[in-house]
Amino acid sequence: MGKIIAFANQKGGVGKTTSAVNIAASLGIMGRKTLLIDIDPQGSATSGVGVAKKTLRTSIRDVLNSFVSSEGDEKRRDIIRNTVIKTNYDNLSVIPSVITLSETEFALYKKEDSAYFLKDALEYVKEEYDYLIIDCPPSLGMLTVNGMTAADAVIIPMQCEFYALEGLSQLMINISGIRKNFNPDLEICGILLTMYTGRFILTSQVVAELRKHYDNRIFKTKISRSVRLSEAPSFGCPVYYHDKSSKGAKEYLEVARELTERI
Questions:
Q1: pLDDT one-digit tens code per residue, 17-46
Q2: Given the DSSP bridges, would you call strands 131-135 and 85-86 parallel, antiparallel or unpaired?
Q3: pTM assigned to the model
């Protein structure tokens, strides 16, 4: 049965989607059958694995709407199975997202037990994969609540700056709230340091502060700033398939290896 891992951080621009896409791809390269689930209405993870959103017939919006509208079990199963797209990359499939998913998020607030809709949906497919990677929106709304309620563990990508430290404290409080109210088994798989530049004094200060409070939760491998890593999304591919010899490709493979040891 597949392990479900949510990538979450309410602060945008911290490398959350980049990390979700590249770790999912790295797991596939390592031979793990992986499903990437994009629950961010921006759909960046979808385009990041080369899926054109304009061509989609179904998306995660249809999956969640089948629960909002109380469709039957068989109809829900058919919808999610028809929504999964096999990408051009090794062992990697995706459930894509579209901008209108934001409309579904409003509907979730009105439905009882809607925090469990994604969890229930993934029950139909999770036995087919080794890992299911959820890319949550950069917010703490109902879509992110669904992502963390469905997950076995959460990875927190975090840029090395002081504003990110402030946001991390709030995110930890919210994770505690998810545990208390929806998912008591939710673990923190780790904090992933992104956009790392070791020569900056500020970076060293932020890392030192993190180690005071979360030392055993920080991934050993840090994700450096990289031109190739920045370029890859514009080509609709994970960085390994853009330039497998690049620093970003090697670092994400190392993080994926560490992830398999943690969960």
A1: 999 999 999 999 999 999 999 999 999 999
A2: unpaired
A3: 0.94
Q: Using the 8-state DSSP alphabet, how is residue 131 labeled?
A: E
Angle between helices 142-150 and 162-181 (to 10 degrees): 70
Residue 76, φ and ψ in degrees, nearest 5: -65, -45
Task: Give the 3-state secondary structure of residue 118.
Answer: helix
Nearest C-alpha neighbor of 2 from the set 256, 235, 260:
260
Q: Which two tokens stand for residue 13?
A: 């621009």
Q: In degrees rounded to 5, what are phi and psi of residue 224?
A: -80, 155
The domains located in the chain, with CATH, are: 3-257 (3.40.50.300)
- 105-139: per-residue pLDDT in tens? 999 999 999 999 999 999 999 999 999 999 999 98
What gap in Å lies between CA 38 and CA 94, rounded to an integer?
7
